[in-house]
Design a protein that fits this description.
The chain is mainly alpha-helical. It has one domain. It is built from 13 helices and 2 strands.
């Protein structure tokens, strides 16, 4: 019990009273604080994620493009040297025996075929290695768990592979200008075929990268299937120069339509009609797009 104090005197509180007052003043007002967050949560809902993760796409795209600079001689210099050798061998040795093909000098005639051959191989290798290497190192799990959709992953890897292939194609075109006189009659069609074919074969390479379980698989289709089809598809000759039976067989080769349409954009001549070439190219593009969509939907070999 507190002692009686004389009236009119102001005395300091006792130790027990001071402790009780300090505890009361220092205790937080939990009722007001607990009400504040709930009110704020009701007033401001959580922001929705963006419909398109541009930052994630750009990060993967930039990484793949940077890898090209790290392997400059393999990615850029080697195709240029190879193209120069093709001009020396085919342009000089064979060109001296074949002066013109369809009214075009043989040296100029093989330029679209050389560009397409490089475009095919580089698109396949760049896209397949780009998606296979994360599988090989195990970082594919980080990509699949990141807030980025399958469509955005495909856009990043395929876009980077197609960009590198298009740059190489333009470099080879510039290199060819030192050897022969070039005349591009339909530049818009030329750019359109270049971009469309680069995207198509980059999608095909992306499929190979997901399908492959070893580095040998990455080389199997490009070297044993695509390369023979390219040489048999009129890259260095016109199928009109073949016997009639082989002309019919050659028309079952889809590469014939791709090279023919691209060559038509240069000189206005081709083995098949340009609309048919465009239709076949679009058909292959959408077929590859459908296979990629199926792979992501079913998870086919994405983690193995």
């Amino acid at each position: 019990m507190a002692p009686n104090r004389p009236k009119g005197l102001i005395l300091s509180p006792s130790k027990d009273e001071a402790r009780s007052q300090f505890k009361a003043s220092s205790m937080p007002d939990t009722s007001s604080r607990s009400a504040a967050p709930s009110a704020a949560a009701d007033a401001a809902p959580a922001p929705k994620p963006p419909a398109f993760n541009a930052y994630g796409v750009w990060a993967i795209y930039k990484f793949e493009m940077t890898r090209t600079l790290r392997t400059f001689w393999q990615s850029i210099a080697t195709p240029v040297v190879t193209t120069s050798l093709y001009f020396v061998v085919f342009g000089s040795a064979i060109g001296s025996r074949i002066e013109e093909v369809g009214g075009v000098s043989y040296g100029a005639f093989i330029v679209p075929g050389l560009i397409m051959m490089t475009l095919f191989m580089q698109s396949l290798f760049n896209a397949s290695f780009g998606i296979y290497f994360p599988k090989f190192t195990g970082t594919i799990y980080e990509i699949l768990s990141a807030p980025i959709s399958s469509m955005e992953i495909v856009m990043a890897y395929v876009g980077a592979a197609a960009t590198k292939s298009i740059i190489l194609g333009l470099i080879i075109l510039a290199t060819a200008a030192f050897f022969v006189d070039l005349n591009i009659q339909h530049p818009l069609y030329m750019v359109g075929f270049l971009v469309l074919i680069a995207l198509t074969f980059s999608l095909m390479g992306f499929i190979i990268g997901i399908w492959g379980t070893s580095f040998e698989h990455l080389n199997f289709i490009p070297m044993l299937i695509v390369t023979p089809l390219t040489f048999l598809g009129g890259a260095f000759y016109s199928i009109d120069m073949l016997p009639e039976t082989w002309q019919t067989i050659a028309l079952f080769n889809p590469v014939v339509y791709l090279i023919s349409g691209f060559r038509w954009s240069f000189y206005g001549v081709g083995d098949v009609g340009v609309l048919l070439s465009l239709g076949i190219t679009l058909g292959i593009f959408f077929a590859c797009l459908g296979v990629v969509a199926w792979m992501f939907k079913t998870g086919y070999r994405l983690k193995t």
